[in-house]
Amino acid sequence: MTLYGEKRPPADDRPTVPVTAVKWPADEPEPTGPRGEGSRSRRVRVLLAAGVATAVLVSVASVGAYAYAGDVPRGTTVLGAELGGRSRAGAVRELRAELDRRADALATPLTVRVGEKSAEITPADVGLAVDVDATVAAAAEAKAHAVERLVGSRSVEPVVTVDVARLDAALKKVVGDQGQKMTMPAITWSGTTPKAVHPKPSLALDPERSAEVVREGWLGGQPVTVPLVETHPATTAEEVDRMVAELAKPAVAAPVTLTTDKGSVTIPPKAIAKSLRFTADKAGTLTPQVDVKRLRAALGDDLTKVEVPPKDARMTISGGKPKVIDGSPGQQLDSAALGRDLLTVLPKADGREVTGTLKPAEPDLTAEKLAGLGIKERVSTFTTRFTGGLSSPRSQNIITIAKDVDGTVVLPGETFSLNGHTGERGYAQGYRDAPVILDGKLVPGVGGGTSQFTTTLFNATYYAGLEDVEHKPHSYWFSRYPPVIESTIFWPNLDFKFRNDTPYGVLIDTSYTSSSITVSIWSTEIYDSVKTEYGPRRNITKPKTIYLEPGPTCIPANGIDGFTQDAYRVIRKDGKVIKREKFSWRYAAEPRYICGPEPS
What we know:
Blueprint: H1 37-67, E1 76-78, E2 81-82, H2 88-101, H3 103-107, E3 110-114, E4 117-121, E5 129-130, H4 132-140, E6 154-155, E7 160-161, H5 164-175, E8 186-190, E9 193-197, E10 202-204, H6 207-217, E11 224-225, E12 229-231, H7 237-251, E13 256-260, E14 263-267, H8 269-275, E15 276-280, E16 286-290, H9 292-299, E17 314-318, E18 321-325, E19 330-333, H10 335-345, E20 353-355, E21 358-361, H11 367-371, E22 377-385, H12 393-405, E23 408-410, E24 415-417, H13 418-422, E25 433-438, E26 441-446, H14 450-463, E27 467-470, E28 497-499, E29 506-512, E30 516-523, E31 529-534, E32 538-541, E33 545-548, E34 562-573, E35 576-587, E36 592-595
Parallel strand pairs: 1-6, 3-11, 13-20, 33-36
Antiparallel strand pairs: 1-2, 3-4, 5-7, 8-9, 10-12, 13-14, 15-16, 17-18, 19-21, 22-30, 23-29, 24-28, 25-26, 27-28, 29-30, 31-34, 32-34, 34-35
Helix pairs in contact: 2-4, 5-6, 8-9, 12-14
Protein backbone atom coordinates (compact mmCIF):
# COMPACT_ATOMS: atom_id res chain seq x y z
CA MET A 1 0.00 0.00 0.00
CA THR A 2 1.34 3.49 -0.92
CA LEU A 3 0.90 6.40 1.49
CA TYR A 4 1.34 10.08 0.47
CA GLY A 5 3.01 9.13 -2.84
CA GLU A 6 5.76 7.02 -1.28
CA LYS A 7 7.48 4.36 -3.42
CA ARG A 8 6.40 0.77 -2.83
CA PRO A 9 8.98 -0.99 -0.69
CA PRO A 10 10.69 -4.12 -2.06
CA ALA A 11 9.23 -7.54 -1.29
CA ASP A 12 9.89 -8.68 2.25
CA ASP A 13 10.56 -12.43 2.56
CA ARG A 14 10.95 -12.42 6.29
CA PRO A 15 8.63 -14.80 8.24
CA THR A 16 5.30 -13.23 9.06
CA VAL A 17 4.74 -12.62 12.75
CA PRO A 18 1.18 -13.47 13.73
CA VAL A 19 -0.72 -10.53 15.35
CA THR A 20 -3.66 -11.07 17.64
CA ALA A 21 -6.38 -8.43 17.10
CA VAL A 22 -7.67 -6.73 20.24
CA LYS A 23 -11.39 -6.06 20.44
CA TRP A 24 -12.16 -2.66 22.01
CA PRO A 25 -15.34 -2.27 23.98
CA ALA A 26 -16.73 0.14 21.39
CA ASP A 27 -16.03 -2.16 18.46
CA GLU A 28 -19.04 -3.32 16.49
CA PRO A 29 -19.71 -7.05 16.28
CA GLU A 30 -17.72 -8.74 13.58
CA PRO A 31 -19.70 -9.06 10.37
CA THR A 32 -20.94 -12.48 9.41
CA GLY A 33 -19.08 -14.40 6.75
CA PRO A 34 -16.48 -17.05 6.36
CA ARG A 35 -14.48 -17.61 9.50
CA GLY A 36 -11.63 -15.13 10.02
CA GLU A 37 -12.64 -12.79 7.17
CA GLY A 38 -14.05 -10.00 9.40
CA SER A 39 -11.16 -10.30 11.86
CA ARG A 40 -8.60 -9.80 9.17
CA SER A 41 -10.46 -6.75 7.81
CA ARG A 42 -10.55 -5.14 11.25
CA ARG A 43 -6.83 -5.74 11.77
CA VAL A 44 -6.01 -4.09 8.49
CA ARG A 45 -8.06 -1.00 9.38
CA VAL A 46 -6.53 -0.72 12.85
CA LEU A 47 -2.98 -1.06 11.61
CA LEU A 48 -3.63 1.33 8.75
CA ALA A 49 -5.02 4.00 11.08
CA ALA A 50 -2.10 3.63 13.43
CA GLY A 51 0.30 4.05 10.57
CA VAL A 52 -1.42 7.21 9.33
CA ALA A 53 -1.45 8.70 12.83
CA THR A 54 2.20 7.94 13.30
CA ALA A 55 3.02 9.49 9.96
CA VAL A 56 1.04 12.63 10.81
CA LEU A 57 2.69 12.97 14.22
CA VAL A 58 6.10 12.50 12.70
CA SER A 59 5.24 15.12 10.08
CA VAL A 60 3.92 17.58 12.69
CA ALA A 61 6.95 17.05 14.86
CA SER A 62 9.23 17.62 11.91
CA VAL A 63 7.45 20.81 10.83
CA GLY A 64 7.29 22.04 14.45
CA ALA A 65 10.98 21.36 14.93
CA TYR A 66 11.70 23.31 11.79
CA ALA A 67 9.37 26.19 12.64
CA TYR A 68 10.71 26.59 16.19
CA ALA A 69 14.40 26.19 15.63
CA GLY A 70 15.90 29.01 17.76
CA ASP A 71 13.96 31.29 20.10
CA VAL A 72 12.00 33.09 17.38
CA PRO A 73 9.71 31.06 15.06
CA ARG A 74 10.85 30.83 11.45
CA GLY A 75 9.17 33.21 9.06
CA THR A 76 9.00 36.02 11.65
CA THR A 77 10.01 39.47 10.43
CA VAL A 78 10.17 42.92 12.03
CA LEU A 79 10.47 45.96 9.78
CA GLY A 80 11.51 43.58 7.01
CA ALA A 81 14.33 42.03 9.04
CA GLU A 82 14.19 38.21 9.22
CA LEU A 83 14.38 37.24 12.88
CA GLY A 84 12.97 33.71 12.56
CA GLY A 85 15.06 30.76 13.61
CA ARG A 86 17.41 32.93 15.65
CA SER A 87 18.21 32.99 19.33
CA ARG A 88 17.03 36.05 21.23
CA ALA A 89 20.53 37.47 21.26
CA GLY A 90 20.84 36.90 17.54
CA ALA A 91 17.47 38.42 16.86
CA VAL A 92 18.44 41.49 18.90
CA ARG A 93 21.62 41.91 16.87
CA GLU A 94 19.78 41.54 13.57
CA LEU A 95 17.05 44.04 14.57
CA ARG A 96 19.62 46.56 15.78
CA ALA A 97 21.45 46.22 12.49
CA GLU A 98 18.21 46.88 10.62
CA LEU A 99 17.55 49.96 12.72
CA ASP A 100 21.07 51.21 12.00
CA ARG A 101 20.36 50.81 8.29
CA ARG A 102 17.18 52.86 8.76
CA ALA A 103 18.80 55.45 11.06
CA ASP A 104 18.27 58.38 8.73
CA ALA A 105 14.62 57.51 8.16
CA LEU A 106 13.99 57.02 11.87
CA ALA A 107 15.54 60.42 12.61
CA THR A 108 13.35 62.19 10.05
CA PRO A 109 11.00 64.72 11.72
CA LEU A 110 7.46 63.46 12.14
CA THR A 111 4.66 65.69 10.91
CA VAL A 112 1.86 65.96 13.46
CA ARG A 113 -1.49 67.64 13.01
CA VAL A 114 -3.55 68.98 15.88
CA GLY A 115 -6.79 70.62 14.87
CA GLU A 116 -6.03 73.15 12.12
CA LYS A 117 -2.31 73.35 12.85
CA SER A 118 0.63 71.11 12.03
CA ALA A 119 4.29 70.98 12.95
CA GLU A 120 7.31 68.72 12.71
CA ILE A 121 8.60 66.91 15.78
CA THR A 122 12.08 65.40 15.92
CA PRO A 123 11.71 61.82 17.24
CA ALA A 124 14.72 62.07 19.56
CA ASP A 125 13.30 65.23 21.19
CA VAL A 126 10.25 63.34 22.46
CA GLY A 127 11.92 59.99 23.14
CA LEU A 128 10.46 58.15 20.12
CA ALA A 129 12.40 54.91 19.67
CA VAL A 130 12.05 51.21 18.93
CA ASP A 131 12.43 49.10 22.05
CA VAL A 132 14.55 46.30 20.58
CA ASP A 133 14.45 43.94 23.56
CA ALA A 134 10.67 44.28 23.99
CA THR A 135 10.13 43.76 20.24
CA VAL A 136 12.20 40.57 20.17
CA ALA A 137 10.37 39.34 23.28
CA ALA A 138 7.06 39.92 21.49
CA ALA A 139 8.31 37.99 18.45
CA ALA A 140 9.44 35.08 20.61
CA GLU A 141 6.08 34.87 22.38
CA ALA A 142 4.69 33.15 19.28
CA LYS A 143 5.82 29.82 20.71
CA ALA A 144 2.82 29.95 22.94
CA HIS A 145 0.59 29.63 19.85
CA ALA A 146 1.70 26.36 18.36
CA VAL A 147 -0.59 25.13 15.58
CA GLU A 148 -1.25 28.35 13.70
CA ARG A 149 2.47 29.26 13.71
CA LEU A 150 3.83 25.99 12.31
CA VAL A 151 4.04 27.13 8.71
CA GLY A 152 3.92 30.38 6.76
CA SER A 153 5.34 33.78 7.70
CA ARG A 154 4.27 36.70 9.85
CA SER A 155 5.29 40.28 10.51
CA VAL A 156 5.54 41.52 14.11
CA GLU A 157 4.95 45.21 14.81
CA PRO A 158 7.86 46.84 16.63
CA VAL A 159 7.35 48.02 20.20
CA VAL A 160 7.65 51.83 20.14
CA THR A 161 8.39 53.97 23.20
CA VAL A 162 7.87 57.71 23.73
CA ASP A 163 8.37 60.14 26.58
CA VAL A 164 4.77 61.12 27.35
CA ALA A 165 5.62 64.35 29.20
CA ARG A 166 8.03 65.64 26.54
CA LEU A 167 5.62 64.74 23.75
CA ASP A 168 2.78 66.54 25.53
CA ALA A 169 4.93 69.66 25.97
CA ALA A 170 5.82 69.64 22.27
CA LEU A 171 2.21 69.12 21.19
CA LYS A 172 0.97 71.95 23.39
CA LYS A 173 3.06 74.33 21.32
CA VAL A 174 1.24 73.05 18.23
CA VAL A 175 -2.18 73.45 19.88
CA GLY A 176 -1.63 77.13 20.55
CA ASP A 177 -4.95 78.89 21.08
CA GLN A 178 -7.05 76.07 19.62
CA GLY A 179 -7.73 74.51 22.99
CA GLN A 180 -10.25 75.55 25.59
CA LYS A 181 -9.69 75.57 29.32
CA MET A 182 -12.33 73.89 31.43
CA THR A 183 -14.67 76.26 33.25
CA MET A 184 -15.21 74.73 36.63
CA PRO A 185 -18.67 74.81 38.21
CA ALA A 186 -18.95 77.26 41.06
CA ILE A 187 -21.32 79.22 43.25
CA THR A 188 -20.09 82.63 44.31
CA TRP A 189 -21.59 85.29 46.53
CA SER A 190 -22.47 88.91 45.99
CA GLY A 191 -23.30 89.85 49.55
CA THR A 192 -26.00 87.31 50.41
CA THR A 193 -26.98 86.60 46.80
CA PRO A 194 -25.62 83.36 45.32
CA LYS A 195 -24.40 83.42 41.72
CA ALA A 196 -24.19 80.23 39.65
CA VAL A 197 -21.16 79.66 37.43
CA HIS A 198 -22.06 77.04 34.84
CA PRO A 199 -19.36 74.59 33.79
CA LYS A 200 -17.91 74.37 30.30
CA PRO A 201 -15.92 71.44 28.88
CA SER A 202 -12.25 71.64 28.09
CA LEU A 203 -10.83 70.92 24.67
CA ALA A 204 -7.29 69.78 25.21
CA LEU A 205 -4.72 67.10 24.64
CA ASP A 206 -4.98 63.81 26.46
CA PRO A 207 -1.30 62.95 27.04
CA GLU A 208 -1.78 59.17 27.08
CA ARG A 209 -4.04 59.21 24.01
CA SER A 210 -1.59 61.45 22.18
CA ALA A 211 1.26 59.07 22.99
CA GLU A 212 -0.76 56.09 21.75
CA VAL A 213 -1.54 57.77 18.42
CA VAL A 214 2.05 58.87 17.85
CA ARG A 215 3.47 55.44 18.73
CA GLU A 216 1.11 53.76 16.28
CA GLY A 217 1.70 56.23 13.44
CA TRP A 218 5.38 57.04 13.73
CA LEU A 219 6.72 54.35 11.40
CA GLY A 220 3.89 54.63 8.88
CA GLY A 221 5.58 57.33 6.85
CA GLN A 222 2.50 59.59 6.92
CA PRO A 223 1.51 62.65 9.00
CA VAL A 224 -0.05 61.73 12.33
CA THR A 225 -3.26 63.41 13.49
CA VAL A 226 -3.41 63.90 17.26
CA PRO A 227 -6.93 64.50 18.59
CA LEU A 228 -8.06 67.23 20.94
CA VAL A 229 -10.24 65.58 23.56
CA GLU A 230 -13.33 67.23 25.05
CA THR A 231 -13.63 66.69 28.78
CA HIS A 232 -16.74 67.71 30.71
CA PRO A 233 -16.72 68.63 34.42
CA ALA A 234 -18.37 66.06 36.65
CA THR A 235 -21.00 68.52 37.92
CA THR A 236 -23.44 69.71 35.25
CA ALA A 237 -25.09 73.11 34.86
CA GLU A 238 -28.41 71.61 35.98
CA GLU A 239 -26.79 70.30 39.16
CA VAL A 240 -25.29 73.73 39.90
CA ASP A 241 -28.70 75.37 39.52
CA ARG A 242 -30.26 72.76 41.77
CA MET A 243 -27.58 73.38 44.41
CA VAL A 244 -28.34 77.10 44.29
CA ALA A 245 -32.09 76.51 44.68
CA GLU A 246 -31.89 73.78 47.31
CA LEU A 247 -28.94 74.94 49.42
CA ALA A 248 -27.41 78.34 48.68
CA LYS A 249 -30.62 80.41 48.67
CA PRO A 250 -32.24 78.70 51.70
CA ALA A 251 -28.93 78.98 53.58
CA VAL A 252 -29.10 82.77 53.76
CA ALA A 253 -32.87 83.10 54.07
CA ALA A 254 -32.70 83.35 57.88
CA PRO A 255 -30.17 83.31 60.74
CA VAL A 256 -29.04 80.16 62.54
CA THR A 257 -28.87 79.90 66.32
CA LEU A 258 -25.72 78.34 67.76
CA THR A 259 -26.31 77.01 71.27
CA THR A 260 -23.57 75.95 73.72
CA ASP A 261 -23.29 75.20 77.44
CA LYS A 262 -22.06 78.78 77.94
CA GLY A 263 -24.76 80.57 75.98
CA SER A 264 -26.03 81.17 72.45
CA VAL A 265 -24.72 83.01 69.41
CA THR A 266 -26.75 84.14 66.41
CA ILE A 267 -25.15 83.42 63.02
CA PRO A 268 -26.56 86.01 60.62
CA PRO A 269 -27.01 85.43 56.86
CA LYS A 270 -23.97 87.60 56.06
CA ALA A 271 -21.74 85.35 58.15
CA ILE A 272 -23.28 82.27 56.50
CA ALA A 273 -22.60 83.66 53.03
CA LYS A 274 -18.95 84.36 53.92
CA SER A 275 -18.39 80.85 55.26
CA LEU A 276 -20.48 78.65 52.91
CA ARG A 277 -18.08 77.71 50.15
CA PHE A 278 -18.64 75.68 46.99
CA THR A 279 -15.39 74.20 45.70
CA ALA A 280 -14.71 72.02 42.67
CA ASP A 281 -11.97 69.39 42.53
CA LYS A 282 -9.85 68.63 39.44
CA ALA A 283 -12.62 66.50 37.95
CA GLY A 284 -15.14 69.34 38.35
CA THR A 285 -17.12 67.83 41.21
CA LEU A 286 -18.71 70.72 43.12
CA THR A 287 -18.92 70.20 46.87
CA PRO A 288 -20.41 72.53 49.51
CA GLN A 289 -18.71 72.99 52.86
CA VAL A 290 -18.71 75.41 55.77
CA ASP A 291 -15.34 77.06 56.28
CA VAL A 292 -15.32 77.46 60.06
CA LYS A 293 -12.21 79.67 59.94
CA ARG A 294 -14.11 82.13 57.75
CA LEU A 295 -17.13 81.79 60.01
CA ARG A 296 -15.03 82.74 63.03
CA ALA A 297 -13.70 85.81 61.22
CA ALA A 298 -17.24 86.81 60.16
CA LEU A 299 -18.62 86.45 63.70
CA GLY A 300 -15.71 88.41 65.19
CA ASP A 301 -16.07 89.17 68.89
CA ASP A 302 -19.46 87.41 69.11
CA LEU A 303 -17.69 84.09 69.75
CA THR A 304 -15.97 85.50 72.83
CA LYS A 305 -19.32 85.04 74.58
CA VAL A 306 -18.87 81.27 74.49
CA GLU A 307 -15.18 80.64 73.69
CA VAL A 308 -11.94 81.18 75.58
CA PRO A 309 -9.06 81.36 73.08
CA PRO A 310 -5.80 79.63 74.04
CA LYS A 311 -2.75 81.81 74.61
CA ASP A 312 0.58 80.90 73.05
CA ALA A 313 3.71 80.91 75.12
CA ARG A 314 5.67 84.08 74.52
CA MET A 315 9.14 85.42 74.98
CA THR A 316 10.38 88.71 76.35
CA ILE A 317 13.82 90.19 76.91
CA SER A 318 14.53 90.56 80.60
CA GLY A 319 17.90 91.61 81.97
CA GLY A 320 19.41 91.35 78.49
CA LYS A 321 18.34 87.73 78.10
CA PRO A 322 15.33 86.02 76.48
CA LYS A 323 12.76 84.73 78.96
CA VAL A 324 9.92 82.27 78.17
CA ILE A 325 6.46 83.02 79.57
CA ASP A 326 4.09 80.07 79.52
CA GLY A 327 0.81 80.19 77.64
CA SER A 328 -2.55 78.82 78.70
CA PRO A 329 -5.17 76.45 77.24
CA GLY A 330 -8.62 77.61 76.22
CA GLN A 331 -12.00 76.29 75.14
CA GLN A 332 -13.16 76.43 71.54
CA LEU A 333 -15.98 75.05 69.47
CA ASP A 334 -15.42 71.71 67.77
CA SER A 335 -14.86 73.06 64.24
CA ALA A 336 -15.43 69.79 62.39
CA ALA A 337 -18.72 69.09 64.14
CA LEU A 338 -19.88 72.69 63.79
CA GLY A 339 -19.20 72.74 60.06
CA ARG A 340 -20.98 69.41 59.54
CA ASP A 341 -24.01 70.26 61.67
CA LEU A 342 -24.39 73.74 60.20
CA LEU A 343 -24.36 72.36 56.66
CA THR A 344 -27.19 70.02 57.65
CA VAL A 345 -29.58 72.78 58.80
CA LEU A 346 -28.82 75.41 56.15
CA PRO A 347 -31.27 73.99 53.56
CA LYS A 348 -34.11 74.05 56.13
CA ALA A 349 -36.70 76.77 56.55
CA ASP A 350 -37.45 75.74 60.15
CA GLY A 351 -35.42 74.23 62.96
CA ARG A 352 -32.38 76.34 62.13
CA GLU A 353 -30.51 75.55 65.32
CA VAL A 354 -27.22 73.77 65.95
CA THR A 355 -25.61 72.72 69.21
CA GLY A 356 -21.94 73.55 69.53
CA THR A 357 -19.58 71.44 71.61
CA LEU A 358 -16.79 73.22 73.45
CA LYS A 359 -13.49 71.34 73.53
CA PRO A 360 -10.19 72.05 75.30
CA ALA A 361 -7.87 73.97 72.97
CA GLU A 362 -4.13 73.83 73.53
CA PRO A 363 -1.93 76.72 72.37
CA ASP A 364 -0.01 76.21 69.14
CA LEU A 365 3.22 77.35 70.75
CA THR A 366 3.95 75.82 74.13
CA ALA A 367 6.67 76.94 76.53
CA GLU A 368 8.57 73.70 75.91
CA LYS A 369 8.52 74.18 72.13
CA LEU A 370 9.47 77.84 72.42
CA ALA A 371 12.38 77.05 74.71
CA GLY A 372 13.73 74.55 72.17
CA LEU A 373 13.86 76.98 69.24
CA GLY A 374 17.37 78.21 69.95
CA ILE A 375 16.44 81.84 70.64
CA LYS A 376 19.35 82.69 72.87
CA GLU A 377 21.23 85.79 71.62
CA ARG A 378 20.78 89.03 69.75
CA VAL A 379 21.97 88.56 66.18
CA SER A 380 21.16 92.04 64.80
CA THR A 381 19.73 95.41 65.76
CA PHE A 382 18.81 98.56 63.85
CA THR A 383 17.66 102.04 64.91
CA THR A 384 16.11 104.94 63.01
CA ARG A 385 15.33 108.39 64.40
CA PHE A 386 12.27 110.62 64.15
CA THR A 387 11.36 114.14 65.23
CA GLY A 388 8.37 115.62 66.99
CA GLY A 389 8.54 113.59 70.19
CA LEU A 390 6.03 110.93 71.22
CA SER A 391 3.09 113.32 71.08
CA SER A 392 3.09 113.79 67.29
CA PRO A 393 0.63 111.65 65.29
CA ARG A 394 3.44 110.27 63.13
CA SER A 395 5.45 109.17 66.19
CA GLN A 396 2.38 107.59 67.74
CA ASN A 397 1.77 105.57 64.57
CA ILE A 398 5.36 104.29 64.71
CA ILE A 399 4.98 103.27 68.34
CA THR A 400 1.57 101.64 67.72
CA ILE A 401 2.86 99.33 65.00
CA ALA A 402 6.05 98.62 66.99
CA LYS A 403 4.01 97.45 69.99
CA ASP A 404 1.88 95.23 67.74
CA VAL A 405 4.94 93.45 66.35
CA ASP A 406 6.93 93.28 69.59
CA GLY A 407 7.47 89.74 70.85
CA THR A 408 6.52 88.03 67.59
CA VAL A 409 8.17 84.64 67.11
CA VAL A 410 8.75 83.44 63.55
CA LEU A 411 9.26 79.68 63.38
CA PRO A 412 11.89 78.04 61.14
CA GLY A 413 10.71 78.02 57.53
CA GLU A 414 7.86 80.49 58.15
CA THR A 415 7.34 83.72 56.19
CA PHE A 416 6.42 86.82 58.17
CA SER A 417 4.11 89.36 56.50
CA LEU A 418 3.81 92.76 58.15
CA ASN A 419 0.40 93.42 56.58
CA GLY A 420 -0.69 89.93 57.49
CA HIS A 421 0.40 90.41 61.10
CA THR A 422 -1.12 93.82 61.77
CA GLY A 423 -4.09 93.69 59.41
CA GLU A 424 -5.59 97.00 58.30
CA ARG A 425 -4.05 99.99 60.06
CA GLY A 426 -6.94 102.41 60.44
CA TYR A 427 -8.55 104.64 63.02
CA ALA A 428 -10.21 101.66 64.73
CA GLN A 429 -6.77 100.16 65.34
CA GLY A 430 -5.45 103.33 66.97
CA TYR A 431 -3.66 104.91 64.00
CA ARG A 432 -3.81 108.64 63.24
CA ASP A 433 -3.46 110.95 60.26
CA ALA A 434 0.13 111.86 59.39
CA PRO A 435 1.99 112.66 56.14
CA VAL A 436 2.09 109.90 53.52
CA ILE A 437 3.29 109.92 49.90
CA LEU A 438 0.32 109.85 47.53
CA ASP A 439 0.58 110.59 43.83
CA GLY A 440 4.10 111.88 44.30
CA LYS A 441 3.49 114.35 47.10
CA LEU A 442 3.06 114.38 50.84
CA VAL A 443 -0.56 114.49 52.01
CA PRO A 444 -2.25 113.66 55.32
CA GLY A 445 -3.22 109.98 55.55
CA VAL A 446 -4.09 107.50 58.28
CA GLY A 447 -1.07 105.48 59.40
CA GLY A 448 1.62 107.86 58.16
CA GLY A 449 4.97 106.98 59.69
CA THR A 450 4.54 103.20 59.65
CA SER A 451 7.00 103.06 56.74
CA GLN A 452 9.72 104.16 59.15
CA PHE A 453 9.03 101.17 61.32
CA THR A 454 8.97 98.97 58.19
CA THR A 455 12.40 100.25 57.17
CA THR A 456 13.73 99.61 60.66
CA LEU A 457 12.36 96.06 60.69
CA PHE A 458 13.66 95.40 57.16
CA ASN A 459 17.17 96.43 58.14
CA ALA A 460 17.11 94.33 61.30
CA THR A 461 16.16 91.21 59.33
CA TYR A 462 18.57 92.19 56.52
CA TYR A 463 21.54 92.34 58.90
CA ALA A 464 20.42 89.10 60.56
CA GLY A 465 20.97 87.47 57.15
CA LEU A 466 17.33 86.44 56.83
CA GLU A 467 15.78 85.88 53.40
CA ASP A 468 14.17 88.94 51.83
CA VAL A 469 10.83 87.92 50.29
CA GLU A 470 9.11 91.23 49.48
CA HIS A 471 9.89 94.89 50.00
CA LYS A 472 9.71 98.13 48.02
CA PRO A 473 11.78 101.25 48.69
CA HIS A 474 10.18 104.69 48.73
CA SER A 475 9.69 106.76 45.57
CA TYR A 476 11.96 109.44 47.07
CA TRP A 477 14.99 109.01 49.28
CA PHE A 478 14.80 110.46 52.79
CA SER A 479 18.04 111.04 54.65
CA ARG A 480 16.72 109.30 57.78
CA TYR A 481 16.87 105.99 55.87
CA PRO A 482 19.84 104.18 54.36
CA PRO A 483 19.65 104.41 50.54
CA VAL A 484 18.26 101.33 48.73
CA ILE A 485 18.09 99.29 51.95
CA GLU A 486 14.73 100.66 53.10
CA SER A 487 11.07 99.84 52.58
CA THR A 488 7.68 101.48 52.48
CA ILE A 489 4.32 99.86 53.26
CA PHE A 490 0.70 100.60 52.40
CA TRP A 491 -2.43 98.61 53.17
CA PRO A 492 -3.26 96.34 51.43
CA ASN A 493 -1.12 96.58 48.28
CA LEU A 494 2.43 97.17 49.52
CA ASP A 495 3.78 94.67 52.03
CA PHE A 496 7.03 93.74 53.69
CA LYS A 497 7.85 90.03 54.04
CA PHE A 498 10.85 88.03 55.17
CA ARG A 499 11.39 84.31 55.57
CA ASN A 500 13.10 82.63 58.49
CA ASP A 501 15.41 80.41 56.45
CA THR A 502 17.38 79.23 59.51
CA PRO A 503 16.88 76.12 61.67
CA TYR A 504 16.21 78.34 64.69
CA GLY A 505 13.33 80.47 65.89
CA VAL A 506 13.41 84.25 65.39
CA LEU A 507 12.16 86.72 67.99
CA ILE A 508 11.34 90.30 66.95
CA ASP A 509 12.00 92.67 69.83
CA THR A 510 11.04 96.35 69.54
CA SER A 511 11.83 99.32 71.74
CA TYR A 512 11.58 103.08 71.41
CA THR A 513 12.53 106.42 72.91
CA SER A 514 11.04 109.87 72.35
CA SER A 515 13.12 110.22 69.19
CA SER A 516 13.99 106.73 67.94
CA ILE A 517 12.64 103.28 67.13
CA THR A 518 14.77 100.13 67.45
CA VAL A 519 14.17 96.59 66.20
CA SER A 520 16.37 93.70 67.34
CA ILE A 521 16.40 90.12 66.08
CA TRP A 522 17.10 87.36 68.60
CA SER A 523 18.02 83.83 67.53
CA THR A 524 21.21 81.80 67.22
CA GLU A 525 24.16 83.48 65.50
CA ILE A 526 24.95 81.77 62.18
CA TYR A 527 27.14 84.19 60.25
CA ASP A 528 30.41 85.91 61.05
CA SER A 529 29.16 89.18 59.62
CA VAL A 530 26.56 90.79 57.35
CA LYS A 531 27.60 94.08 55.77
CA THR A 532 26.53 96.41 52.96
CA GLU A 533 28.80 97.61 50.17
CA TYR A 534 27.51 100.51 48.07
CA GLY A 535 28.15 101.36 44.48
CA PRO A 536 28.39 105.03 43.44
CA ARG A 537 25.26 107.07 42.83
CA ARG A 538 24.50 107.65 39.15
CA ASN A 539 21.86 109.22 36.91
CA ILE A 540 21.45 112.09 39.35
CA THR A 541 18.47 114.37 38.69
CA LYS A 542 17.55 117.69 40.30
CA PRO A 543 14.13 118.46 41.81
CA LYS A 544 11.60 120.76 40.20
CA THR A 545 9.79 123.52 42.06
CA ILE A 546 6.02 123.14 42.26
CA TYR A 547 3.63 125.67 43.78
CA LEU A 548 0.53 124.32 45.54
CA GLU A 549 -2.59 125.94 46.80
CA PRO A 550 -2.10 126.66 50.50
CA GLY A 551 -4.34 124.94 53.00
CA PRO A 552 -4.45 122.22 55.65
CA THR A 553 -3.71 119.45 53.12
CA CYS A 554 -0.65 121.19 51.63
CA ILE A 555 2.65 119.96 53.09
CA PRO A 556 5.78 121.81 51.91
CA ALA A 557 8.96 119.95 50.95
CA ASN A 558 12.49 121.14 50.28
CA GLY A 559 13.09 118.79 47.37
CA ILE A 560 15.50 115.85 47.12
CA ASP A 561 17.84 114.78 44.31
CA GLY A 562 16.94 111.66 42.39
CA PHE A 563 19.55 108.96 41.69
CA THR A 564 20.18 105.29 40.99
CA GLN A 565 22.33 103.20 43.31
CA ASP A 566 23.32 99.58 43.94
CA ALA A 567 23.81 98.00 47.36
CA TYR A 568 25.35 94.60 47.99
CA ARG A 569 24.61 92.46 51.03
CA VAL A 570 27.81 90.56 51.79
CA ILE A 571 27.46 87.60 54.16
CA ARG A 572 30.53 85.89 55.61
CA LYS A 573 30.81 82.59 57.43
CA ASP A 574 33.91 80.73 58.61
CA GLY A 575 36.02 83.54 57.21
CA LYS A 576 34.59 83.26 53.66
CA VAL A 577 32.03 85.20 51.67
CA ILE A 578 29.17 82.72 51.21
CA LYS A 579 26.58 85.10 49.72
CA ARG A 580 26.67 88.40 47.86
CA GLU A 581 23.22 89.83 47.01
CA LYS A 582 22.59 92.85 44.83
CA PHE A 583 19.84 95.37 45.64
CA SER A 584 19.20 98.23 43.18
CA TRP A 585 16.76 101.13 43.16
CA ARG A 586 16.03 104.25 41.17
CA TYR A 587 14.85 107.22 43.27
CA ALA A 588 12.88 109.97 41.59
CA ALA A 589 13.73 113.57 42.41
CA GLU A 590 11.20 114.79 44.98
CA PRO A 591 9.92 118.19 43.85
CA ARG A 592 10.33 121.27 45.99
CA TYR A 593 6.74 121.92 47.05
CA ILE A 594 5.82 125.47 48.02
CA CYS A 595 2.40 126.15 49.52
CA GLY A 596 1.56 129.40 47.82
CA PRO A 597 1.08 131.08 44.46
CA GLU A 598 3.85 131.06 41.91
CA PRO A 599 5.60 134.46 41.74
CA SER A 600 4.63 136.48 38.70
